[in-house]
Specification:
Layout lengths: L1 E2 L6 E2 L3 E3 L9 H13 L4 E3 L15 H13 L6 E6 L1 E2 L2 E2 L3 H15 L4 E6 L8 H14 L2 E7 L3 H14 L4 E7 L11 H9 L2 E5 L23 H5 L4 H17 L3 H10 L8 E2 L7 H5 L8 H10 L2
Parallel strand pairs: 3-4, 3-12, 4-5, 5-8, 8-9, 9-10, 10-11
Antiparallel strand pairs: 1-2, 6-7
Helix pairs in contact: 2-3, 3-4, 4-5, 8-9, 8-11
Length: 311
């Protein structure tokens, strides 16, 4: 377990993504995954009020509802750190005070809980003054509806100004960030954002940690994506650089007798401020390779080899 700086939240180094719940995993499958994840020592679940409204007939909130039903059945609410997000659900768009207030109440109801452990601004909203957004989030913490705040998909500049405004207003500030980051997509984080996270001592929780499945090693040829929900997204990495990364992953995985998936996640844990990559599992069978990251320590030479291959 690792303590998130500036909080009392102790989290597993593998954050379970809830985006597949109600999408590629129905409620029964999702319950099985949650059962197995927690049985394996996991305690950190990430979702959003908008998951998965991209599915025809799905109005969003389904992932939260499934997690809430599981929490009610299992009675394990106090054992878990639950993270969810606001700004993308059709009933709570953007980061105005009204949207944030509406979003948090809906999320609390669906999750069947009286508080959210880590509440994200899912996407920045340049159309709303940051003072309004920051103050609204601060109210939620003061009221006990939310324990800690975080920012997802923010630029370094916008994250920095949000932190400054929170300090000026004397309200709770963001303690963590979430961004697209993995071995074949490094540009969003590395640079200004990474420097800010380091300076401000903020945790980073990368999403798309496995590049839509590409970094599991199951996509090696053009035909491997046929019939898969994320096949097209993964196959875009099948180029010279992608093959270099797979070769390096194969070599390191063989040296440790682990799966390629585990190595890809372990590399992220060597990056500054990364405390837990986010990865989802559609089936129980996919979980062991994810949870195994907590027991894998890469050598400096292996980290360098992976970093160079993905440059």
């Amino acid at each position: 377990m690792t303590l998130i700086p500036r909080t009392d939240l102790d989290v597993n180094p593998l954050c379970l993504g809830g985006n597949v719940f109600g999408w590629t995993a129905d409620e029964a499958q999702s319950f099985a995954v949650l059962d197995a994840y927690t049985a394996g020592g996991g305690n950190f679940v990430d979702t959003s009020d908008s998951y998965s409204q991209w599915v025809p007939g799905n109005e969003g909130g389904v992932s939260e509802t499934i997690i809430g039903n599981w929490l009610a059945r299992s009675g394990r609410r106090d054992d878990l750190v639950i993270a969810t997000k606001v700004s993308r659900h059709k009933d709570a768009v953007g980061l105005s005070r009204a949207s944030i207030r509406r979003g948090v109440e809906n999320s609390l109801r669906r999750l069947q809980t009286d508080h959210i452990d880590l509440y994200y601004a899912h996407y920045d909203d340049p159309d709303v003054p940051q003072e309004e957004t920051v103050a609204a989030f601060g109210e939620l913490v003061a009221e006990g509806k939310v324990r800690y705040l975080a920012a997802s998909n923010f630029t370094a500049d916008r994250l920095a100004s949000s932190l400054r405004i929170a300090d000026e207003l004397g309200v709770a500030r963001y303690v963590a960030a979430q961004s697209h980051y993995n071995l074949v997509h490094r540009e969003t984080v590395e640079g200004a954002l990474a420097e800010l996270l380091e300076t401000k001592n903020l945790a980073l929780f990368p999403y798309y940690s496995l590049a839509s499945g590409f970094l599991t090693g199951k996509y090696r040829h053009g035909g491997d994506g046929e019939g898969r929900e994320r096949g097209a997204a993964a196959l875009k990495y099948l180029d010279e650089r992608g093959f270099r990364v797979l070769d390096a992953l194969d070599k390191v995985a063989a040296a440790h007798a682990v799966e390629v998936t585990t190595v890809a996640l372990a590399w992220l844990l060597t990056r500054p401020n990364v405390l837990a990559p986010i990865a989802s599992a559609r089936t129980v069978e996919q979980l062991p390779a994810l949870l195994a990251v907590s027991g894998l320590e890469l050598t400096e030479a292996e980290v360098a080899e992976l970093t160079t291959a993905s440059a």
